[in-house]
Amino acid sequence: MTAVGRGDQTAYAELSVRYRPLIAHWVRRYLSDAWVVDEVTQDVLLELWTIADRFDPARAVAPWVRTITQRRAIDRLRKLCTERERDLRIGARDLDVVDHASVERAESVLDRLALRRALRVLPARQREAVVLRHLVGLSGPELGVVLGVPTGTARTRARDGVLALRRVMTAPSGTSP
Which domain holds residue 70? Predict the structure, then answer.
C-alpha cells in the first residue's frame, strides 16, 4: 500500500487484482444491483489510488480497505434511497420503467421462501449440514467439528442434502420428489 501511495502503478494494479473481488463481495452486502456493485467497486478502487498516501503502514490493509468500502456502499445506498423517495414524492417515477433492484429483491424473497419449504422436507442431519455448510459458510473440516462427525461424513451429508434440495425445488408443484 505504501508503494501505491508513492504512485507505483504496478503496485496499484496488484492491489486492484487482489482486492477487487473482495471489495465487490463487501459491496454486495449493501447493494443488490450488479451495475451499482460494479460502479461502487470501481469508486473504491479509485479512492484507494487517491488516498493511498494516507494509509498507516503499521496497520493491516484489508480492514482499511473494508472500512472504505463499507462507507462508499452505505453512501450509495443512502443516495439511492433518497433518489427513490424524491422520485416518489414528485411523481417522476414512470410506472413502465422496471426497477431491476426491486425485482431482484422480490425474486430473492421468493427464492428464500421456496428454500425454507424445501429445507423442511430434508432429514434433520442433511438439513443441518446444508445450512451450516452453505448458509453459514463453514468449511468441510469446521462442519465436521460442529456436527461431531468426520469431515468426509459431514461433506457427504451436505452434498446429499443439496442433491435432495435440488430434487425438491425442481419437482413440479403438488408432486413429491
Answer: 1-90
